[in-house]
Amino acid sequence: MAGKGLGARVHFVELRILDGAESIGGTKVFLDTGNMRLLLDFGLNYKRYGLYFEEYLKPRSSRGIADLWRLGLIPHHPDLYRDDLWPDDLPREGSPLEVDLILISHAHMDHCGLLGVVRPDIPVAASPTTWAILKAIQDAGKAEFHAETVYTVPRERVPGDPRVLKAPVRKSTAARVREIRLVGEAPAELVEFLQRPPNPRGRGLESGNIYSLADNSTGWGIRTFGVDHSIPGAVGYAVETDAGWVAYTGDLRLHGKGREQTIRFVEEVKRLRPRILLIEGTRAGPRGGGNPTEEEVAVRAHGIVAKNPGKLVIADFSPRQVERLQSFLDIAEATGRILVVLAKDMYLLEALEMCGWLEGAVGSPYLAIYDDVRVNPRAWERDIRERYRARMVGPREVREGPGRFILAFSFWDLKNLLDIEPQGGVYIYSSSEAHGEEQEIDMRRLWEWLRYFGLEVHGFAIDATGNPVFSGGLHASGHACPEDLLFIAREISPEILIPIHTEHPEFFAEHLKDESIEVRQVKNGDVIKI
């Protein structure tokens, strides 16, 4: 472990908001309990990142952390970061921040998407399901250096130019698995998967230390609780400190199929009588209304599919949202169709099945893989295609029998329609609303694609002013509605409530002003000592 011994004690608790106080996402909170130093999440702040970067303008991997550092997209604590990502011409300025452990709440990148720049010897704790998702995403995704969540690929300095960093030849240097701490028991199959290189004939993968958090946290006083969110494996935390318990909700909701998990979290944390509760507030404020449940979404989507026999159906949702995927798989079975996903989605489903999620989905006769164009598929994808060769569905099959399929395509997959050439059909938008100008632009592009192919659209439209309008109740948010946020706050009743992951912290202050709860509205950089 980094820093001072666990036996040393101080008589204060320090909570430092590094990021995420004034935005939805980018959460990074430092907690010094008196016995240990923790980070609660280490996410990518998409709002601030989007001020400088977009799809075709990204941080330069050849410069390591330099771009992120100079634009203030990572906290200025140099000892947190990988030496191999630090170019020689970047001054190591900033205050030290000793960290014993990082606690990750779930696998959304706004909570863990900057782990790739953090030293791999700092232990990181998350649920087994979160680790399974992150490994599948990293194996199948683009090689973004800041998103090396599970294993890190070492960079080397280019001789003669200390400014330049590059990844060594694939087979010459192995990648390194992080110090992983598992929140809960994990099957041996998952532990093996976490240490398996995505390409057995390519770069090796140096095994890291993978332990249960309970086995490696004696005296730390960390409690973990499953919560319901739009991605499986989400957890909330409670940490015992010299000044009382500090609890953190992560992202959670009360209207999903796993709502009982969130209820148990609230009940258990309430019994701890926490001194501080860090609560997410994504939907706090005037735009947080409307609260369809997952069951309601499934019923509405089923009705649309059932009314359109013989027509191609395209369903736009995230396969990481397993409840939604299960719903569309059930709809496919009930309407005599096959749900067609991408190879990377099947790879993710296999990882989730190791952790007990969506059991039976991978082998379902109502699930197939789209045979899209691949010039040189990577090793994991070649393996998927080989193993599921009999369940590959190509554009010709969809074109000749559109009523047999539901295609799980998002905006990024619509180019495949140029091969399918659908003659009309139905598009069900079952994903989140646009947040910010860039996503609104994407929605306008999506609309043009749908108009081009003559698809009947459900879930959103573009109004006369060119702005996207969302309706139809075809998406259930992963976040608690305003009323449920207040229920959680009042039920747990901490001494101090700190809203984060929100653009409306004043919502809590206004609605809890007559309660025996002190609401502290914080900004990035604020330090709370108790």
From the structure above, extract its key features.
globular; disordered N terminus; 530 residues; 8-stranded mixed β-sheet; 15 helices; alpha/beta
Give structural notes:
45% of the residues are buried. By secondary structure, this protein is of the alpha/beta class. The protein is 26% helix and 20% strand. The chain contains 15 helices and 28 strands.
Q: Secondary structure elements and their pairing?
A:
Layout: E1 14-19, E2 28-32, E3 37-40, H1 46-49, H2 66-70, E4 101-103, H3 109-112, E5 124-126, H4 128-140, E6 151-152, E7 156-158, E8 161-166, E9 175-177, E10 180-182, H5 188-194, E11 205-206, E12 210-212, E13 222-226, E14 235-241, E15 244-248, H6 259-272, E16 276-280, H7 294-306, E17 313-316, H8 322-334, E18 338-341, H9 343-354, E19 367-370, H10 379-387, E20 392-393, H11 395-400, E21 405-407, H12 417-420, E22 425-429, H13 437-452, E23 455-458, E24 460-462, E25 468-470, H14 482-492, E26 496-500, H15 506-511, E27 518-519, E28 527-529
Parallel strand pairs: 3-4, 4-5, 5-10, 9-11, 10-12, 15-16, 16-26, 17-21, 17-22, 18-19, 18-21, 19-20, 22-23, 26-27
Antiparallel strand pairs: 1-2, 1-28, 2-3, 6-9, 7-8, 13-14, 14-15, 24-25
